[in-house]
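Raw record, unedited: D-glucuronyl C5-epimerase C-terminal domain-containing protein
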Amino acid sequence: MKIEDIDKASMVVPPSPRQWLIEGRESVRYGWDEGYIKKHGQKFSPWAFAKNCAAVLGHTRANGKSTLMTEMAEVIMAVAQPHIESIGHERYVVNNFDYSYLWHKMRPPFYGAFMNNVTASGLLHLYEATGVGKYLLLADRLLMTSVDTRAAIPLCSDGGDGDFWLHEYVFRTDSDGSAWSEINSADIWRQARIYNGHIHALLPLMRMREMTGLPDYDRAIRKAVATMRKWLPAQVHEGRYFSYSPDMPIFPDYGQKRALHLAESLGQLTGDAVIADAAATAKGVWAGIEGREKEVIAAAADNAKQKYLASLKK
């Protein structure tokens, strides 16, 4: 397994620095999404953070380590730092805005293994680019928290036998929702099972393993892969499209092509025959979706909404 293949699977390949006009340490390659800032009131998102960190590594790979990239890493980290919360030895990426999941209104703050681990992926890129140890240490804390079922806020759950989930969203809500969805619960916390979120949270664990050679995450990686071995064949809903979550299988993944990419990538990285077979099936499903992805998603999402609305009348 190569780090470059993991980055490709994660969709955060360090880019070439060509056509990147750098006027100083504040000139982060991709900036911060203005639409996201307007909607949620913050610059930081794990995805934007990871992309900007990957750009720093891409520059370093092309030009060598530099004071400029070390300083830019600090600028990027300063945007993320206010959104990282400590509880004892645990570290959490936290979001403090209103959000919803399958018509469940989350009460802020909310957390998730996806947020922790995509942020950790960016930190691993910063460590490789700068050699500054604090980035590796924080990445390790975020990843370790994500796989600890006994954590104060559990970002994963282990139901045994292919049910070790890395949850994209861990949140509190005032709604029951059991009439239209089935969501894991741990005390006051609801834990969303989302296919793409689970795989995106798994890949940084693999990257840490390949970077350090340490076996700390081997058990979690093995169990998270087993979860996809069990569940990926069920992501294809009625042979028509890719489901977003086992919590409500009728609801479509909003990135149908991404679903195929993640399934194929995981099959290639692991060499797992069951996952590879599921990816081959997914490729056939995508052939029927390609060119009309928006139409398929809209129709499936409407069907899911009708199921939700019907459940409210019972």
